[in-house]
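Repro:
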Amino acid sequence: MKSIKLIFTSKLNKVLDSDVQFCKDMIRSSGGVVTGPVCFKQQRQLTYHHPTTKGLDVLSSVKLHKSINVCVLTH
């Protein structure tokens, strides 16, 4: 697995931006490399390069706002 794309969607842009930034900070704090967010109307995309077990554990423990949906794509 080379990278994981995380696509966050919500109609609440301020909440979306806040939670995406929080996820980005969590990945970086675990030593991961992340790029993005790439912004679309109601979507934000982060790319997590060379994911580690520690980083994935951190991401799985993050509590997002109930209006946010996440799609995970692996490469």
